[in-house]
Amino acid sequence: MSKCANKESEAWSVYLIRNCLDQLYCGATSNVERRFAEHQAGGVRAARALRGKAPLQLVWHHQLADKSTALRWEYRVKQLSRRQKDALISGSNRLMQQLADTVANKSAADTVTTAASVKSDQTKTK
Fold this sequence. Notes:
Layout: H1 3-9, E1 12-18, E2 24-29, H2 32-41, E3 57-64, H3 67-79, H4 82-90, H5 93-125
Antiparallel strand pairs: 1-2, 1-3
Protein backbone atom coordinates (compact mmCIF):
# COMPACT_ATOMS: atom_id res chain seq x y z
CA MET A 1 0.00 0.00 0.00
CA SER A 2 1.34 3.45 -0.84
CA LYS A 3 1.98 6.06 1.84
CA CYS A 4 -0.83 8.24 0.48
CA ALA A 5 -3.39 5.43 0.55
CA ASN A 6 -2.33 4.53 4.09
CA LYS A 7 -2.73 8.14 5.30
CA GLU A 8 -6.20 8.39 3.74
CA SER A 9 -7.44 5.29 5.56
CA GLU A 10 -6.25 6.25 9.07
CA ALA A 11 -8.75 7.39 11.69
CA TRP A 12 -9.53 11.11 11.83
CA SER A 13 -11.40 13.21 14.38
CA VAL A 14 -13.51 16.35 14.45
CA TYR A 15 -13.03 18.59 17.49
CA LEU A 16 -14.29 21.74 19.18
CA ILE A 17 -12.06 24.11 21.15
CA ARG A 18 -13.37 26.86 23.45
CA ASN A 19 -11.21 30.02 23.77
CA CYS A 20 -11.03 32.67 26.51
CA LEU A 21 -13.85 34.65 24.85
CA ASP A 22 -16.14 31.59 25.08
CA GLN A 23 -16.02 31.19 21.28
CA LEU A 24 -15.94 27.75 19.70
CA TYR A 25 -13.51 26.68 16.98
CA CYS A 26 -14.10 23.52 14.95
CA GLY A 27 -11.43 21.53 13.13
CA ALA A 28 -10.52 18.06 11.84
CA THR A 29 -7.28 16.17 12.33
CA SER A 30 -5.70 12.73 12.43
CA ASN A 31 -4.21 13.44 15.88
CA VAL A 32 -6.30 15.52 18.30
CA GLU A 33 -3.67 15.76 21.05
CA ARG A 34 -0.95 16.98 18.66
CA ARG A 35 -3.28 19.46 16.96
CA PHE A 36 -4.54 20.86 20.25
CA ALA A 37 -0.94 21.33 21.43
CA GLU A 38 -0.21 23.23 18.18
CA HIS A 39 -3.19 25.52 18.80
CA GLN A 40 -2.12 26.09 22.42
CA ALA A 41 1.43 26.96 21.36
CA GLY A 42 0.02 29.77 19.23
CA GLY A 43 2.75 29.55 16.60
CA VAL A 44 2.51 29.33 12.83
CA ARG A 45 0.78 25.91 13.04
CA ALA A 46 -2.04 27.31 15.20
CA ALA A 47 -5.32 28.39 13.65
CA ARG A 48 -5.36 32.16 13.23
CA ALA A 49 -8.76 32.31 14.90
CA LEU A 50 -7.25 30.92 18.11
CA ARG A 51 -3.99 32.88 18.28
CA GLY A 52 -3.78 35.16 21.31
CA LYS A 53 -7.02 33.78 22.77
CA ALA A 54 -5.62 31.43 25.40
CA PRO A 55 -6.42 29.66 27.59
CA LEU A 56 -7.89 27.10 25.20
CA GLN A 57 -9.99 24.14 26.22
CA LEU A 58 -10.65 21.04 24.12
CA VAL A 59 -14.35 20.55 24.86
CA TRP A 60 -15.43 17.86 22.36
CA HIS A 61 -14.04 15.48 19.81
CA HIS A 62 -15.41 12.57 17.81
CA GLN A 63 -13.34 9.94 16.02
CA LEU A 64 -14.36 8.92 12.51
CA ALA A 65 -13.23 6.28 10.04
CA ASP A 66 -11.31 8.42 7.55
CA LYS A 67 -10.34 11.91 6.43
CA SER A 68 -13.18 12.32 3.94
CA THR A 69 -15.84 11.51 6.54
CA ALA A 70 -14.17 13.77 9.12
CA LEU A 71 -14.13 16.70 6.71
CA ARG A 72 -17.83 16.22 5.95
CA TRP A 73 -18.57 16.12 9.69
CA GLU A 74 -16.45 19.24 10.24
CA TYR A 75 -18.47 21.10 7.59
CA ARG A 76 -21.76 20.02 9.19
CA VAL A 77 -20.64 20.93 12.74
CA LYS A 78 -19.62 24.38 11.51
CA GLN A 79 -23.16 24.83 10.16
CA LEU A 80 -24.71 24.20 13.59
CA SER A 81 -25.98 27.04 15.76
CA ARG A 82 -24.21 27.84 19.01
CA ARG A 83 -27.04 26.19 20.94
CA GLN A 84 -26.63 23.00 18.90
CA LYS A 85 -22.85 23.00 19.39
CA ASP A 86 -23.39 23.37 23.15
CA ALA A 87 -25.79 20.40 23.01
CA LEU A 88 -23.16 18.40 21.14
CA ILE A 89 -20.59 19.24 23.83
CA SER A 90 -23.11 18.18 26.49
CA GLY A 91 -23.39 14.76 24.82
CA SER A 92 -26.61 14.95 22.82
CA ASN A 93 -27.00 11.50 21.25
CA ARG A 94 -29.90 12.77 19.13
CA LEU A 95 -27.75 15.49 17.57
CA MET A 96 -24.89 13.03 16.99
CA GLN A 97 -27.30 10.72 15.18
CA GLN A 98 -28.65 13.62 13.10
CA LEU A 99 -25.11 14.57 12.07
CA ALA A 100 -24.31 10.97 11.15
CA ASP A 101 -27.50 10.68 9.12
CA THR A 102 -26.93 14.01 7.38
CA VAL A 103 -23.38 13.11 6.40
CA ALA A 104 -24.43 9.62 5.27
CA ASN A 105 -27.35 10.99 3.22
CA LYS A 106 -25.11 13.66 1.65
CA SER A 107 -22.59 10.97 0.69
CA ALA A 108 -25.32 8.84 -0.87
CA ALA A 109 -26.70 11.86 -2.74
CA ASP A 110 -23.20 12.72 -4.01
CA THR A 111 -22.76 9.15 -5.25
CA VAL A 112 -26.09 9.22 -7.10
CA THR A 113 -25.34 12.66 -8.57
CA THR A 114 -21.87 11.57 -9.67
CA ALA A 115 -23.22 8.38 -11.25
CA ALA A 116 -25.95 10.34 -13.05
CA SER A 117 -23.47 12.90 -14.40
CA VAL A 118 -21.13 10.14 -15.63
CA LYS A 119 -24.05 8.45 -17.39
CA SER A 120 -25.09 11.79 -18.88
CA ASP A 121 -21.56 12.44 -20.12
CA GLN A 122 -21.41 8.98 -21.69
CA THR A 123 -24.68 9.58 -23.54
CA LYS A 124 -23.44 12.92 -24.89
CA THR A 125 -20.27 11.37 -26.28
CA LYS A 126 -22.12 8.64 -28.22
